Amino acid sequence: MMKFKPNQTRTYDREGFKKRAACPCFTIMSIVQVLLVSSSRYPDQWIVPGGGMEPEEEPGGAAVREVYEEAGVKGKLGRLLGIFEQNQDRKHRTYVYVLTVTEILEDWEDSVNIGRKREWFKVEDAIKVLQCHKPVHAEYLEKLKLGCSPTNGNSTVPSLPDSNTLFVTAAQTSGLPSSVR
């Protein structure tokens, strides 16, 4: 089933690019895992949550809204990872932020309305999955892997480690779904 928003107004920048915003979502306890959602167009394929900006909406606010709608999570918005241009033919310009997840909803808008799913992936696995269907989304994670801290430096969230090993205590993961622990 495809997502349909009847009252959606597309916004464009001065160069004719559709303005979009997105967020790779991480947890404080497990920075080596990133949350991906199923595509509304191709439900068996995974994407980074994101979508079009509404009129008068700031990129950061749009990114947080899209993550809430598509992935059913809330969190702390981190730094701007970059502005990515997707497919010159489609002319999308996406502001990509990093979000540290603080709350995971059991049911959310897109899960109820279109059956969207979410899943936590190791960063390396997410990059491989995204390279097949959404290579520009894989670029978001590649940029983050280059040693960039996911936050503005005002948080205790570490940079991505060189390996996929991160040790956490059981107390740090209590209250989170087992798929995140």
Provide structural commentary.
Strands 1, 2, 5, 6 and 7 form a five-stranded mixed sheet that branches. The model is unreliable at 151-181 (pLDDT under 50). With 181 residues, the chain is α/β, with parallel strands linked by helices. Helix 3 packs antiparallel against helix 4 (135-145). The chain contains five helices and eight strands, in the order E-E-E-E-E-H-E-E-H-E-H-H-H.
Quick take:
This protein has 181 residues and is α/β, with parallel strands linked by helices.
How many β strands by DSSP? 8
Shape: globular
The biggest sheet amounts to: 5 strands, mixed
- Class from secondary-structure proportions: alpha/beta
Radius of gyration: 16 Å
Family: Belongs to the Nudix hydrolase family. DIPP subfamily.
Main location: cytoplasm
Enzyme class: hydrolase
Protein name: diphosphoinositol-polyphosphate diphosphatase
Keywords:
five-stranded mixed beta sheet, 8 strands, about 30% strand, alpha/beta, single chain, about 180 residues
Q: What are the SSEs and their pairings?
A:
Layout: E1 18-22, E2 25-27, E3 33-38, E4 46-47, E5 50-52, H1 59-71, E6 73-86, E7 92-104, H2 109-114, E8 118-122, H3 123-133, H4 135-145, H5 170-173
Parallel strand pairs: 1-7, 2-7
Antiparallel strand pairs: 1-5, 3-4, 3-8, 6-7
Helix pairs in contact: 3-4
